[in-house]
Structures are given as structure tokens and as C-alpha cells.
Here is the input.
Amino acid sequence: MTTKPTTRGARRFAPALAAVLVLTFASAAAPQAPRATPAPLPPGAVLRIIAFGAHPDDCELDAAGVAAKWAAAGHKFKCVAVTNGDIGHWGIAGGPLALRRRAETQQAAKILGIETEVLDNHDGELMVTLENRRKIARLIREWQADIVISHRPNDYHPDHRYTGVLVMDAAYMVQVPFFGPEVPPLTRNPAFLFSEDRFQKPQPFSGDIVVSIDDVIEKKLAVVEAMPSQFYEGGCCDLPTGGLPTDAAGKEARRKEVRDRFTARFASTADRFRPRLAEWYGAPRAAGIKYAEAFEVCEYGRQPSKEEIRRLFPFFGDVAAR
Here is the structure.
């Protein structure tokens, strides 16, 4: 025996359902109030910059110069190593290496006058996960960052690539109230910048902002010397031919070799972006700049105008071409 389905219940809820649908469509059709544009940073405001590197030396190599300049001017800079670097040496690994590299970052931070943090992710194993995205967003919020610096997401090392992806994934989420609500969202989206690289595909690094570091080059070279596990000793893959020297003359020659190599590397940025230096400093001054650091403005996050960039990077001086 079959029975006819009752429609009494459906009829009972039909008016309520219709009301919900009407309100839903009305809400969707109504014009949404635009989000207010935050006021520009007031003159003299203390800037807060956070830079993410994949390993405990990447942030320092990419941005130690500007870090020292910002710190000397009273601004706040923090380096974050997203992995602990525990396989970044040809002779030791694991906990002992992670502790050694953490200590190296702390020494570098003292030289530069900045803060530093090393996250406890294994070197070579960083993944793009929701947990890591939340962690990166939380760090940016806690620092109340005006500027965020990271690798580009096209790079030879997977940890570099995934650090870039994680930071880009946080670029919008730092403002979303209910994403990680345990830390309040930022009311002003930071400017997100990429540090320099030489990869060409899918597009080359643009070098939108190029800063002279001539006045702090000795601090940056001191940072290189403060990380012997990576540079003097050769890190994971660059043990000097014949091994590390044991005599005083050999040690001094090795120290000079490392210093000369990085001096040339930091000079190459100035030569590579000489025309861009002229845009920021004016041609006469740019011609004499020996060392530089360069950054690309990420399409995500705040899109600063040239005027705002000059406020965020208060290093260019009055002679800069406008």
C-alpha cells in the first residue's frame, strides 16, 4: 500500500524560506560599502619590517644592509628563518647544527641591532600547509608589519620556493578577522617585497627598489663572518678543495677568500641595477654607489606609490630624482 507524501510541513516552512531568500538576494544586490583606505604613515612613525628567509642565513644575506640602516634610524626589523637549517653542513647535522645556526643568527642580530627568530621546521622539508600559513600570518600580525620581505616563489631550493608561497598566501589573510582570530588582524595591509635573485623564468626579478648599502657594508660583511658554518666552512655543499686549512696562514687566506667573494656579490647588485639607482638617488650619486640591495614589489598586499616607498625607505635623500 502506498501513501501520498504530505506537503503540510513544506507549506509550513515556505514563508520562512521565502523570506530568507529575499533577504539573501537583497543583500547580494545591495551595494557594499568600500573598505576605508588606511591613512598613510605619519612622518616620523617607527617602521616595522619583518623578513622571512628559508634558512638561518637567507634573510641576513638578502637584507642585512637595509636592516642595519633601518635599525640605526630607530625602526624595528626582525629576521625569521622558516626552517632550522639542520642539514645545511657537509660534516654535521641534526640538533647540534640547528643550535649552532641559531646561535649564528643571534650573533648576526647583535651586529645589525635587530631581532631574530628561527622556526623549528626541518631543513629541506618545508611544506605549504595550513598550519604553516597560519604561523606566517600570525608572525606578521604580531610584528604589526609595515613591510614584509621574502623569497620569490621561483627558486632552485624548495624551501626558498615554499617560503615565498607561504608569505604570499598570508598577504591577504593577515587582514581577514576570522583567519587565526587569536591574533587581531592588521588594519593596514603591509607592502610585500621579494628579495633579489637571478632566476629568469617565468619572469626575471625586477628590482623595483634599490638601496645603497655603502655606509653599512662592513656590518654586512661582519654578518657573513658571524656565520662560519655556512661561508667559511662551506655549508652543505661547498667544502673547500683539500678541506679546511689548519695553519694560521691558510685560515687567513680562507677568510679573505670568503670576504672577497661576498664583497663582489654585494657589489654586483649595484652594477646590475645602476639605472634604477639613478632613479632613486639621482645619476651623479648613483654613479658612485658601490654596494646595494634590491627588492621587487609583490603584486599581493599593499601597492605603495613612489612617494610612499620613499617614506618606507628613508634612505634616498633630497637629491633623489623625482
